[in-house]
Amino acid sequence: GLGFAYNPQILKPSQLPRTWADLADPKWRHQIVMWDPASSGTSMLLLQAALMRSIQTTGNEEAGWRYLKALYANLQRYTDAPPSMLIARGEALIGIHFEHQVLEYLEQDPDPAAVAQMQKSLRWTILPDSPVIVDPVALIKNCPHPENGKKFIDFIMSHEGQGILNHLCFVQDPSYGPPRYLNYTKAQELAHAMPLDIEWMGRSFNPICTRWENEVEKSKWLWE
Q1: Nearest-angstrom CA–CA distance, 204 and 198
Q2: Which pLDDT score is estimated for 108?
Q3: What pLDDT does 92 receive?
Q4: In what order do the strands lie in the sheet with 75-78?
Q5: For a FRET experiment, which of 90, 94, 139, 148 has its CA 20 to 30 Å from that of 61?
Q6: Distance from C-alpha of 17 to C-alpha of 99, rounded to nearest angstrom
Q7: Contacts by 52-55 with C-beta closer than 8 Å and gap 24+?
Q8: Mean pLDDT for the stretch of residues 54-76
Q9: From CA 101, how far away is CA 81, in angstroms rounded?
């Protein structure tokens, strides 16, 4: 699920954005961090989701582009570091990325006490009408070692393999619950999921990149 990280020592629950539209509010000016959409599929999905919501509600993309311009004006900067790290340090208020990227940040320390300390300065939330995607596994046609590929897929889908994946994401094995450090179920996450037009996403990828770079970014560089 795509959402955002925040620092509960700085932002109270009552202060959090409740919708994606809230992130365009000028009160978040220079307080949002994310990766560059030119190099990040996570941030590119944010752009595509905003435009899809616009198409679904108005029939065209233009309201989505107005929203993206307002959101861009609220960015502090693009970051090369994980947004979670900047949020935990108090360098920004909102860090946009997937839930597993927050879990990766927490999982880097095996000590539960250290993780509990980290969580005092880091939380993650998913908003209504958010992109929720599936990470698939597949065997490539005519691959050179299909038997090894099949063994790998069998392992991924085994109870042991699903347990490894469950550290960072929801899995298909029903015996596993939510990933550690998440406080909601798969059903609750799916209740927040927006419909995704995968064919449109494929067709629109390059045009969106071009318009973002030529129209949105050039309207005001982040470092001005």
Answers
A1: 10
A2: 78
A3: 95
A4: 75-78, 32-34, 94-98, 2-6, 123-125
A5: 94
A6: 17
A7: 52/194, 52/195, 52/196, 52/197, 52/200, 52/201, 53/20, 53/129, 53/194, 55/200
A8: 95
A9: 11
Q: Are 179 and 162 in contact (CB under 8 A)?
A: no
Length of the chain as a residue count:
224
Give residue 101's pLDDT band: very low, low, confident or very high (50, 70, 90): confident
d(CA 152, CA 181): 27
Tell whether the model's pLDDT for residue 190 goes beyond 90: yes
**In Å, what is the CA distance from 120 to each residue of 13, 87, 107, 124, 193?**
14, 11, 15, 12, 27
Cα(193)–Cα(214) distance, rounded to whole angstroms? 30
pLDDT at 110: 77
Cβ distance 165 to 156 under 8 Å? Answer: yes
Give CA angle at 133 (130, 136), nearest 5°: 175
**How many Cβ atoms are within 10 Å of 146's Cβ, its own excluded?**
12
Are residues 84 and 95 in contact, defined by beta-carbon separation less than 8 angstroms? Answer: yes
pTM of the model: 0.89
Tokens encoding 194: 């927006």
